[in-house]
Every structure is written in structure tokens, then in C-alpha cells.
Amino acid sequence: SCCNDVFSDWFLGATQNTTPTLILPSDREIEAYGDYTQQLVGYVSYCRAWPGAGFDKKKELEVLNYDDSFDNGGYNITVNGHLVVDFIEVEGCIFLAHKGGYKFPKNNQGRFEFQFFTNLADKYVRFTTVMVW
């Protein structure tokens, strides 16, 4: 369960009146690949959707970039309730960090629940990939 499904390969998350939530691994992933939650360590990265990747040019101006995030107040992310406060960019994607470091603890089901909060009206966080190791 996540966000507003706009295209088959990404989600558009608007947080007006709701908080988009993504839980990984999803029930469908576990059904397809087995329960591999014990193997997950807790390192998290995500890749944003790049400009021009099948998105209306007007809407493109409403998408927040990495630099609009945490320090600049454009959007916030929590992972299992831990606020993301920093990141490091690697090959166009970012590894997320909370105040305790880059390793996020699992929830009581061994999963990772992401919540996305945009702080600017009519702005969006657009991503293509979320990875958990």
C-alpha cells in the first residue's frame, strides 16, 4: 500500500490530507520470493525520478529534488518512525541516515515502513527505486 499509483514503475506521493506509506518488503514480495526479512540489515537508499522521465513538463517543476529535502525543509522521510536527517549520494541515488547513523532498525515484523511528508504546497517527492539491504 503506497502513494498514488500513477505509472507502473513509480509512485507519486502527495501528502495533503494523507501520509503516503511504503512497507518493504511488501506482502506480494514475500509471497513471490519468500520471507527474507531476516537477511535485511537496515541500510536504505532510494533513487529519484529524473527530469523528463515520462512526466508532464509543468508537473516537473513541482517535483522536489534531493537538495530540497531534509536541511532545506522541502520534505521529510521517516523509516520505522526514525526521521531521516542526512544522506550521502552515490551514483545518482542516496543512502539515508537518521540521528543514529545509516543503519535503520526493523519494525516488529522485520520490515521497513517509509513515510513521506512534503512541507511545501503543491510539491511532490518522486522516486523510482527504494532499496533495503
What's the topology here?
Blueprint: E1 4-7, E2 10-13, E3 21-24, H1 27-33, E4 44-48, H2 57-60, E5 63-64, E6 75-79, E7 82-83, E8 86-90, E9 93-97, E10 112-118, E11 124-132
Parallel strand pairs: 5-11
Antiparallel strand pairs: 1-2, 2-11, 3-10, 4-9, 4-11, 6-7, 6-10, 8-9
Comma- or semicolon-separated keywords:
4-stranded antiparallel β-sheet; 2 helices; globular; mainly beta; 7-stranded mixed β-sheet; 133 residues; 8% helix; 11 strands
Q: Termini distance? A: 20 Å
The whole-angstrom Rg is 15 Å
- What is the number of strand segments? 11
H-E order: EEEHEHEEEEEEE
Ranges where pLDDT stays below 50 over 5 or more residues in a row are 1-17
Multimerization state: single chain
Instruction: Sketch the major β-sheet.
Output: 7 strands, mixed
* Relative helix content: under 10%
